[in-house]
Amino acid sequence: MSTTAASGFQWDSGNRAKCQKHGLTIALIEALFTHPHHLAPDAAHSTTETRLLAIGRGGGARPILAAFTLREVEGELFIRPISARYMHSKEIEAYEQAFAPSHQ
């Protein structure tokens, strides 16, 4: 699944506040999806709709982990971020080992 087909982002007061509480800006979260990123299913939290995880740097130095879903509105597909945060040091280590150029 690719996020490049999305027309934009769906923000409201609920997901905006939840995503910003970890110190990320809306611009940085959106940048994650325009820079190289990896997608993974978020099966543990997918009860009523398909949730995905995006992992990448978003142009910044620290990797970001964002949970999101894709929503169709009037025939257009939008990325709806659910939560986002900087990755913890152990997560960064695992991310860098998994996606280092020598592993691809």
Using only CA atoms, what is the Rg? 14 Å
> Which term fits the overall shape?
globular
Mean pLDDT: 87
Question: Termini, distance in Å?
Answer: 19 Å
What's the order of the H and E elements?
Answer: EHHEEEEH
Q: What's the number of extended β-strand segments?
A: 5
Assess the beta-strand content as a share of residues.
25-35%
Outline the biggest β-sheet: 5 strands, mixed
Helices, strands, pairings?
Blueprint: E1 8-9, H1 13-20, H2 26-34, E2 37-41, E3 52-56, E4 64-73, E5 76-86, H3 89-98
Parallel strand pairs: 1-5
Antiparallel strand pairs: 2-3, 3-4, 4-5
Descriptive terms for the model:
globular, 5 strands, 104 residues, single chain, five-stranded mixed β-sheet, alpha+beta
What does this structure look like?
Strand 3 and strand 4 form a beta hairpin. The longest helix is centred in the C-terminal third of the chain and has 10 residues. The mean pLDDT is 87. The chain is 26% helix and 32% strand. With 104 residues, it is α+β, with helices and mostly antiparallel strands. Strands 1-5-4-3-2 form a five-stranded mixed sheet.
